[in-house]
Design a protein that fits this description.
Layout (H helix, E strand, L loop, with lengths): L7 H4 L12 H4 L5 H12 L4 H9 L3 H23 L4 H5 L3 H15 L5 H23 L10 H10 L1 H22 L2 H13 L5 H37 L10 H6 L13 H21 L7 H25 L3 H7 L17 H20 L6
Helix pairs in contact: 3-5, 5-10, 7-8, 7-11, 8-12, 11-14, 12-14, 14-15
GO cellular component, one term: membrane
Organism: Paraphaeosphaeria sporulosa
Keywords: Membrane, Transmembrane, Transmembrane helix
Amino acid sequence: MLDLRPTLRVALPVVKALPECADFSRTVSPFLPQLYDLPQRVFDNINNLEALQHVYLSTNPLITALGFSLFLTPIVFIVAEINKNYSQVDRLWSILPVIYNSHYALWAHLSGLPTQRLDHVMAVTILWGARLTFNYWRKGGYSVGSEDYRWNIVKDYAGPAAMFVLNIVFISLAQNILLFAITTPTYILLLCSRLTGDEFTFYDSIFSKLIFAIVLIEFFADQQQWNFHGAKNAYKATAKVPKEYSYTREQLDRGFNTSGLWAWSRHPNFAAEQGVWLALYQWSCSESETYVNWCFAAALSYLILFQASTWLTELISAKKYPDYKLYQERVGRFLPKIATGGMDAPTANVNAVSQKQQDTRKNVKATGSTRKR
């Protein structure tokens, strides 16, 4: 009978103070060699469940998660190349972080470590994943042959050879590693729990509730967008403003949502999405008593990815909708522009601008110059 609770020093670093839990050279680097022989250990015991449990518990949990992300990389690459469909990682986006954070909680439970903090992380991550999975499903993301419309733009611009390289380096490899990396703060929380025990502190409660609140914002943003496009489709079909929705003809004619949360942010769902993983990162900083730790690289990479993808999204929207550039001027990309208000705000500011333009034209006609006397 194998011992399913091997000595923790085989799988975890020895830490004596909370800041040490966020020290990369102490908590990650020494365990990287485990990654090299992990595939062979799994293969050798593939038919022995008890032995596989031993391998699982005697391997650093961060290394196991990293190994799984690398295992997925060639699979999604091959599937993408066979089908010439580059949304394979998109389909896993809402699932993989749930797997990783659940893995940390499971590993801690099986190893006899304090788990209350990790259980909360797992719970809010499951809620996050359920919301995103449902929204992706109802938009047809899991339908056979479906692909993010932005990939067609990239394919037309890059060409087959560049797309092949992009698929290897970014789509299949970098994105898979990123989805693993954004959950690494949970590893720090796991290490901290060994020192602090199962006490759920005030700050733990704050961060747990904050992430839950951000997920709620995402839910409302998604639903508002879904409602708008439902109303827009009905409006296109009948040329009548649907009574079951609270949109005006002007709003529907624009073609894009400018109401609710979308009146304050051009991408409230994207803003909240970034907020979830920033909050988890800050949770690890708070718990480890550090201002910055190595997980910052993942959080920053996530922000950069969303900046790039949002830029492409808006480039397409600005060409498709005549009023979108005005929307960009009046509403912030992620955070509100308090001074300008939304597209559907009282028209006093708009009228004032219009009046100023008319006065300028009159002044030009009268004086031949826009210079004030």
